[in-house]
Backbone:
């Protein structure tokens, strides 16, 4: 699992390219100065964008099955991942940040709506 990337993943790069193409710039990548280290942060607007992989973060849209071997390990692993994700969002909301979660499957199937979600958060 050490070979699994935690930043600059393919869905993240695709989304960032689409944001840039649509004139949405001025964001910080993996910004350490805010809790949760969001994939994309707009510090001035206090908006954090997380681009979650469907498998590791247990996408609610995909409903992926657990691996067939070592089920207890994987169940605990995925539960830790989802609870960590929730904790990050709660921490950010507590300090007044808006969050946008975009799933890998959404980037792959409907990139324009992902860009629109970020735009909506920025210009509300």
Residues:
């Amino acid at each position: 699992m050490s070979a699994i990337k935690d930043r600059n993943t393919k869905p993240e790069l695709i989304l960032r390219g689409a944001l840039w193409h649509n004139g949405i710039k001025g964001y910080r990548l993996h910004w350490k100065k805010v809790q949760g280290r969001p994939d994309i942060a707009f510090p001035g607007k206090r908006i954090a964008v997380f681009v979650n992989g469907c498998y590791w973060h247990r996408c609610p849209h995909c409903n992926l099955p657990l691996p067939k071997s070592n089920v207890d390990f994987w169940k605990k692993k995925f539960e830790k991942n989802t609870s960590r994700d929730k904790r990050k969002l709660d921490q950010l909301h507590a300090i007044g940040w808006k969050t946008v979660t975009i799933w890998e499957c959404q980037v792959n199937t409907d990139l324009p709506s992902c860009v629109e979600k970020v735009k909506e958060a920025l210009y509300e």
